[in-house]
Amino acid sequence: DAGITQSPRHKVTETGTPVTLRCHQTENHRYMYWYRQDPGHGLRLIHYSYGVKDTDKGEVSDGYSVSRSKTEDFLLTLESATSSQTSVYFCAITPAGGTYEQYFGPGTRLTVT
Amino acid sequence: SQQGEEDPQALSIQEGENATMNCSYKTSINNLQWYRQNSGRGLVHLILIRSNEREKHSGRLRVTLDTSKKSSSLLITASRAADTASYFCATVPGGSYIPTFGRGTSLIVHP
């Protein structure tokens, strides 16, 4: 599982509240990613990071922000959760080597009521 | 936007049969990858094929790539009930390092 953990694994929150999801990796990988997975849409990239304090937006970044102050942690924040952000969120890493395959965490199921 | 699109969306077969899934994409790629996702779990990387390769094998998996048709296929031979999962193709465009995932094929293998 490439030493990737996500917390929490499940969360129910109310519309309008801020939510932070954490991705933690133990193997010093440089590249980290946040995806959301929804029925009919597959996996869509939210934000990614290519180093400490180096992040960029993905395809569906509106309403989300990220931070990476340490190599091992990549945080995803929903500034003010909406029902459309109900989804399963996956963190992934790309190991060094140049082929760019990804290894995924177990996911966080977020429900916004 | 999805770069790769899998076909069919759903596939139901009997144990022991072969399963073939296809992926089409639109732009030139560095490589193409296939992933498996069991229900409620994260994606697992299965196999990667580079743009200059035409075929690759890993155990019961066979992947082909036709860059002229911008398509790939994943063949699972002698399928087992444990192969029941969703399968995704992901393309890494030339000049990029970030895979773009398709919507997946849901495979059900009946015992």
Can you describe what's shown?
The complex is a heterodimer of chains A (113) and B (111). Chain A has 113 residues and is mostly beta strands. Chain A has one domain: Immunoglobulin-like, CATH 2.60.40. Chain A has no helices and 11 strands. Chain A has strands at residues 4-7, 10-13, 19-25, 31-38, 42-51, 54-57, 64-70, 73-78, 87-94, 103-104, 108-112. Chain B is mainly β and 111 residues long. The relative contact order of chain B is 0.35. Chain A binds chain B through residues 1, 31, 33, 35, 40-45, 48, 58-59, 90, 92, 94, 99-107, and chain B through 1-2, 30-31, 33, 35, 40-45, 48, 50, 88, 90, 92, 97-104.
Helix-strand topology string of chain B? EEEEEEEEEEE
CATH fold-type name of chain A: Immunoglobulin-like
Gross geometry of chain A: globular
Query: Which protein chains are joined by the largest interface, and how many residues does each one contribute?
Result: A-B, 25 and 25 residues
Salient structural properties:
heterodimer, A: 113 residues, mainly beta, Immunoglobulin-like, 7-stranded mixed beta sheet, 4-stranded antiparallel beta sheet, 11 strands, globular, B: 111 residues
Short description:
The complex is a heterodimer of chains A (113) and B (111). With 113 residues, chain A is mainly beta.
Annotate the secondary structure layout:
The complex is a heterodimer of chains A (113) and B (111).
Chain A: E1 4-7, E2 10-13, E3 19-25, E4 31-38, E5 42-51, E6 54-57, E7 64-70, E8 73-78, E9 87-94, E10 103-104, E11 108-112
Chain B: E1 5-7, E2 10-14, E3 19-24, E4 29-37, E5 44-50, E6 55-58, E7 61-66, E8 71-76, E9 85-93, E10 100-101, E11 105-110
Parallel strand pairs in B: 2-11
Antiparallel strand pairs in B: 1-3, 3-8, 4-5, 4-9, 6-7, 7-8, 9-10, 9-11
